[in-house]
Amino acid sequence: MTKFPSLSSKQVIKTLKSIGFEDAPKRGKGSHIAMVKREPGKIRLVVIPNRKIIPKGTLRSILDQAGLTRDEFISLIVDK
User: Fold this and answer.
1) Sequence-distant (≥ 6) Cβ neighbours of residue 6 within 8 angstroms
2) Secondary structure percentages of the chain, helix, strand, coil, to 5
3) For residue 21, which of 8, 15, 35, 78 is within the disulfide window of CB 3.0 to 4.6 Å?
4) What is the C-alpha to C-alpha distance for residues 79 and 64, in angstroms, rounded to an integer?
């Protein structure tokens, strides 16, 4: 299992956009950004705090919301 790198909200948003997430309409005002991905039979909503460095626990929660494992997410970042 690979360790999480230190990531900013901008890096997380860029990675999620690369797999089909988009800005959620009428959400994400203030200190958080909401993103949505529509899949057959389900809609995934991810809320990301607008921070320079996202804490590891918060990043794990974001990945749970997005339906990604740690290794899947890290491979998306490494491929960039």
Assistant:
1) 53
2) 40, 20, 40
3) 35
4) 21
